[in-house]
Amino acid sequence: xxxxxxxxxxxxxxxxxxxxxxxxxxxxxxxxxxxxxxxxxxxxxxxxxxxxxxxxxxxxxxxxxxxxxxxxxxxxxxxxxxxxxxxxxxxxxxxxxxxxxxxxxxxxxxxxxxxxxxxxxxxxxxxxxxxxxxxxxxxxxxxxxxxxxxxxxxxxxxxxxxxxxxxxxxxxxxxxxxxxxxxxxxxxxxxxxxxxxxxxxxxxxxxxxxxxxxxxxxxxxxxxxxxxxxxxxxxxxxxxxxxxxxxxxxxxxxxxxxxxxxxxxxxxxxxxxxxxxxxxxxxxxxxxxxxxxxxxxxxxxxxxxxxxxxxxx
Amino acid sequence: xxxxxxxxxxxxxxxxxxxxxxxxxxxxxxxxxxxxxxxxxxxxxxxxxxxxxxxxxxxxxxxxxxxxxxxxxxxxxxxxxxxxxxxxxxxxxxxxxxxxxxxxxxxxxxxxxxxxxxxxxxxxxxxxxxxxxxxxxxxxxxxxxxxxxxxxxxxxxxxxxxxxxxxxxxxxxxxxxxxxxxxxxxxxxxxxxxxxxxxxxxxxxxxxxxxxxxxxxxxxxxxxxxxxxxxxxxxxxxxxxxxxxxxxxxxxxxxxxxxxxxxxxxxxxxxxxxxxxxxxxxxxxxxxxxxxxxxxxxxxxxxxxxxxxxxxx
Amino acid sequence: xxxxxxxxxxxxxxxxxxxxxxxxxxxxxxxxxxxxxxxxxxxxxxxxxxxxxxxxxxxxxxxxxxxxxxxxxxxxxxxxxxxxxxxxxxxxxxxxxxxxxxxxxxxxxxxxxxxxxxxxxxxxxxxxxxxxxxxxxxxxxxxxxxxxxxxxxxxxxxxxxxxxxxxxxxxxxxxxxxxxxxxxxxxxxxxxxxxxxxxxxxxxxxxxxxxxxxxxxxxxxxxxxxxxxxxxxxxxxxxxxxxxxxxxxxxxxxxxxxxxxxxxxxxxxxxxxxxxxxxxxxxxxxxxxxxxxxxxxxxxxxxxxxxxxxxxx
Amino acid sequence: xxxxxxxxxxxxxxxxxxxxxxxxxxxxxxxxxxxxxxxxxxxxxxxxxxxxxxxxxxxxxxxxxxxxxxxxxxxxxxxxxxxxxxxxxxxxxxxxxxxxxxxxxxxxxxxxxxxxxxxxxxxxxxxxxxxxxxxxxxxxxxxxxxxxxxxxxxxxxxxxxxxxxxxxxxxxxxxxxxxxxxxxxxxxxxxxxxxxxxxxxxxxxxxxxxxxxxxxxxxxxxxxxxxxxxxxxxxxxxxxxxxxxxxxxxxxxxxxxxxxxxxxxxxxxxxxxxxxxxxxxxxxxxxxxxxxxxxxxxxxxxxxxxxxxxxxx
Lengths: 313, 313, 313, 313
Hints:
Four copies of one chain form a homotetramer. Chain A has helices at residues 5-16, 27-32, 54-65, 75-84, 104-110, 157-182, 200-203, 221-231, 238-254, 256-267, 274-284, 291-294, 298-308; strands at residues 19-21, 37-39, 43-51, 95-103, 117-120, 141-143, 151-154, 212-220, 270-272. In chain A, α4 (75-84) runs parallel beside α10 (256-267). Chain A is of the alpha+beta class. Chain A is flat, with a radius of gyration of 24 Å. Chain A folds into three domains: 1-128 and 210-269, Gyrase A, domain 2, CATH 3.30.1360; 134-209; 274-308, no CATH class. Chain A has a five-stranded antiparallel sheet with strand order 2-3-4-8-5. In chain A, strands 6-7 form a two-stranded antiparallel ribbon. Chains A and D meet through α5, β6, α6 and α7 of A and α5, β6, α6 and α7 of D.
């Protein structure tokens, strides 16, 4: 359960409010505004504000291109054109703000994307809750031997049990010791008057990186799509990908035309290098091409065949 | 007249729309949403979208400080605290989008602020209108002799007349030649079928930098305040300051508590260097301090006296 | 002649100096350090400082991947891998600083790239030189009818002559009037004691955007390559492309392995959308595919055929 | 001991190299280039590259101000002027690259500064070393009761012992379990062939945030000074302040004039709000001013008195 009753009440109250605005609105996104979309065992993603819609992208493009754009008159066509030719600035004209609860090690990957605004819960000021991420057994992938940063099949039986035991026990124990060192409740009351509590900014260092933190994360649509192109990708770590997947759903509700163009021209496509393009051209001309003469490395050759759906011999 | 009848009709139509939203709204800003606030002779500033309000700043700060912030319970107090101690990230949680029409030379100063999103009208694609900035006579400042980047008293009589004549005639002539080189109407029709028109991207190079351009400019509140602290300052060039002044009014409508704090703690205050602080301490202790022994340069000494409202002897 | 004798002497003196350093050096770039590489009629590009080399990219990647990267042991292979998979952060570890002299309208395109540091010559403080860009006759492209932002064949005969006449005369006249309004030499001496000079920040507004300005522009290698991918592209305006072309040569001298990878994987390749990829797969499988059933728009279909070197029927 | 013999050998070898360069050099910084400056129990800061020097700041300012700057002819004077009037862009023309080893919880504070380039050691790819931060007993501050984010006096006796015992034992135990789950050596050899090792990207989640990570961090001088103004401040957490202190020493070696100006005009000074300035003016005029009529809150009043070195009554 990612939410306390208090938090749920706060969300319900925010959702109950409604006001008139002259701004563009995205009704499908309004439907889920403030709602906590669950991710992992205790995490969530909430859209807490947004600015702009599909039409705002079009409008910004029209300012740039002025009277010169009459011919591409349809919104979807113009958005596709912008996406295809990487005219990125009109997508920067939309903005969205998320409230996210996520494990610290996921937050550390996420924060590498610097072109966003962040306000994170501070364990210097406040006491962290006793909430930590424990993967489901089916996600306990073994280390991949072919890919340094990947997972192979999940552990099974005793191997899986032992891992889950370690994660649970160590998380609980480090939290108990965190609480002991603090020697105060989250309301600031002293627990044991015979001991002096350690400063919060120090005590927190005993927590493992699967503990949950939370933040407000605000980003423009262009940079959000860039984030999603990397993090909703099969090569991303599962634990961040599930956040990206949920966020992609919110993008669909917010700017459906942009989302379609993104899937068609960015996520679903492939980039061919100069040599790969040469090889494809020759194949299309009916030539047999083999890896060696293509100039591609064995790895690139395989990646190209896979992208083109050709079985390697 | 900054707006064409078409543009005014478009604005009226946008202003007539209203939709329900669950998002925070800023009613005083909604009142002027989309309206063109006139600046200089043909320019304007229009707020075309916004996200967040005073409460959004408070909310972001509360996420950061969590349960630790109970004591600073009042919103205005918390906002003042954030502004005073330069905790800037909560102010990044609000965003605003302007449509601005401005002379090219003002746009060139403005664009130095890189932490914003911009879509500018492109003279590669489209034809610029015949609109250029001519200062009022009272703004035709002479070159200041004490300050390399400043203006002294305005020119008068024949000197002023001659300047205005030059600016008007040269602007009009370079535009006429621009149109001649283009040899097309803004609807793309050929004017003189016996001549070939020059590409727009080339013809534009004949225009002077007092011609008007326009752009969408989107920025977060923190970076907007930084912009205003520099551009609403008496040292800023008059022609950009008038834009900043109008924008400051929109900030007041949008986030009144933040605006008050900004005026109190940023615009209205003064920064004392280490040596200036030493001098002030000694003066408060009743000592006579003179420039030489203060360690301050003559220029710094004068700046300090002026800031403290002390007449130099 | 882009350089005054004074400037040339300064450059010669800077080039004559040499010091010992423990930092990585790029000898081929040192050869041309500080030299003015001419661009257009009065412009130039000078490399005035740099940090890092090919090995610095490799080193940064190795920190990220740590002991896990033993297998990709060769520098060129690792750099290709990073470029191919858009692992961009290691390329941010190199930095370069240019001194560029360029027409104002080129500077306005250039500055849209915000992820760089800029110090531009200020016409508020100082007086601009009487130098403006006049295109060669062969670059006076007509407006393209198929492409709103492109040029067709060059004007000829009287059409070209008239354009060159306008550009030359208007530039010279606006400068003469600029000088008249200033009423001071560039050493600050009054020219005509019976007139009051206009402030520099105002007088400059009479200059056309083909006048030259100059700046220091500092950027990291990743963002420089992004800039070059857009501006060394055939779709970029000729007047900025010639700057990008010269800069690409400096990149070749600085980080030759990165430059090769950039040309192979970024500049020389092609991106296929999801539908284009489907079409290519089917063609490779021996099917006839036509535009309609491909789901691609006519324009996309043509772009795909062109990229694949297939003649449209 | 922060360095392994291998690392020390690598550093010695890098330090032994020397090449000729035409670039500006900072001899005092060259002296310590690549050397590991120890911080905390296992951390370090190393300068691994730099670009520019004091003169580069001056040169950039001169480009901006052009011939207009003749009067401020001395470098130190110009640098002081730039710092005092917050003309920040010339400081962006210098760049420095650090290699830093630091506890994860420090890295998490540090990374909030987004205007820098980072390559961090990745525990997805590689195995972390068994190195964690244990504070010295004298740094085990109690939670401050007056300041939510501060420390009071250090714990003593049994309280301190217990904290150190917890931190040591939990760190060691979570690492042992991390290694057990990995079931591989850092050379990739399987430890126990009867068990399947967990993927590195998952196993790492069992480590506490006092474990050391490392990164390359590259930043321009302006943003570095901003970082130092916040992190070398007494309000910063001790564990990040010690890094900032060491980095400030490297700045002194690199750009001594800039460093002096920074200490004089940024670190050593004080900012007075509008109301505080009014109060100071009145005091200087001989009036008695008390908190209530000053319009300052009690807290602000105290902060002002403290800044001015006045004993509160």
